[in-house]
Amino acid sequence: RGRRLALAARVIGVTERPRWALVAAIVLVAANMRTLMASLPPLAEAVRADLGLSSAWMGVLTTLPVLCMGLLAPGANQVARRLGSEVATGAGVGLVLAGLVLRGSGGGAVWSLYAGTFVAGAGIALAGTLLPGIVKAVFPARRSGLGTGLTMAAMMGLAAVASATSVPLADVLGDWSRSLLVWTPLAALALVVWVPVARAAHRHPEREEVPEDVTHALPWASATAWLVAAYLTAQSWQFYSALAWLAPTYEAHGWTAREAGLLMAAFTGAQLLSGLAAPTLLDHVPDPRLLLVLAGLLGGAGELGVWLAPDTAPWLWAGLLGAGQGAAFALGLALLVRYAATPRDSARLTAMAFLVSYTAAAFGPAAMGVVEDVTGSFSLVWALLALVMVPQLILSLRLRPDLARVGAQID
User: Fold this and answer.
1) Which end of the chain offers a freer environment for a tag, N or C, measured as fewer CB atoms within 10 Å?
2) What does the DSSP assignment read for 257-319?
3) Which of 147, 405, 132 is nearest to 283 (CA)?
4) Residue 154 confidence (pLDDT)
5) Local structure of 400: helix, strand or coil
6) How far is Cα 231 from Cα 126, in angstroms, rounded to an integer?
7) % of the chain surpassing 70 pLDDT
8) Residue 158: what are its φ and ψ, rounded to 5°?
């Protein structure tokens, strides 16, 4: 507890700013964690037609940032040890900005599209891995769910806007690459707002004193860490696959790109609401399993609907899918805080969980793209995603409130 209070004092106190200003900075950083991926799917058919890409290669554009979030998560933890979490988070936002510029300014060239996606993905990996620990330091334990909910609302709210406006922006600007470039000012604003936080923390490194016996290793021996990582693996495989292929699925059913973009906005908008509500409710619910199972059932119902009756109630399926996935992901992030003893342990748990889950889930969009290439239909894609919901529900039932916290014992 002493180490948590010391970090909180360093993050909040040295900035000489009110807590709401720091929370606003955190929310702005979080807002840039999903626009990279959410802005592309509504433009997928136009990009594929212009560049001659297969479904598998289009899936890679979603796979790249997710793979970065997995493979680079432990590196983010190491960078934070050397530079401090605040400086490392600022560096991550800077990479997101550079990647967005590179992706959108290449005039539709294949190399800039993939290179920019990779660079921004590395930035998301760096900043996104460290955010749960910062949230744990800034928000008191009884309000950690609210902190997670605010970051989720920012992520999904801007993702919804990106999905809804990508196609109209491409129409107005005359090019899909220019539409992708629109999200650079948001990243620039987040960087500008975060710089005072990082500079203040860098000027006062002595305020964070960490005992020599505190481990920085990933908690590989922790059964709790493995349960959370497995849960996030199943959830992330479904989420990023749905993010990549929901819009193309309905374009294949005759929808226009603009209509598919609005459907994606409904999908991500539902995530905004459930992503804010679920972790906030978690602050008042002693057993997380009730919320975890409910989230899984909602998401599974949406997947079954898109698979079995896609044209019957597409807006309902998108809403159920988004509500379920948004709540499940937000609850997973909240568990990274709840099941850790200190902010540093939260960073360790986050790094391990992201390494395992995102590395595995990164292959979801491309693998589902291969399924579509082989079968010529998205029907089997959604059947497989519904099947992945089964282990997610099983794991949800095992995430008891009395699980040993990471850092509470040697792991």
Assistant:
1) N
2) HHHHHHHHHHHHHHHHHHHHHHHHHHTT-S-THHHHHHHHHHHHHHHHHHHH-TTTSHHHHHH
3) 147
4) 86
5) coil
6) 21
7) 89
8) -70, -30
Using alpha carbons, list the distances in angstroms from residue 213 to 79, 210, 217, 367: 19, 8, 12, 43
Its pTM stands at: 0.78
Taking the CA atoms of residue 187, residue 193, residue 198 and residue 199 in that order, the dihedral angle to the nearest 10 degrees is 130
Burial class (CB in 10 A: 0-12, 13-18, 19+), 298: buried
Convert 195-222 into a string of H (helix), E (strand) and C (coil): HHHHHHHHHCHHHCCCCCCCCCCCCCCC
285 pLDDT higher than 80: yes
Check residue 339 and report its DSSP letter.
Answer: T
What are the C-alpha distances in Å from 128 to residues 29, 104, 238, 411?
Answer: 9, 22, 19, 23
pLDDT at residue 216, rounded to an integer: 63
CB-CB contact of 201 with 84 (8 Å): yes
**What tens digit of pLDDT does each residue of 352-396 get?**
998 999 899 989 988 999 999 999 999 999 999 999 999 999 999
| Structure tokens that stand for 66 in this block | 């997710």
What length does the chain have?
A: 411
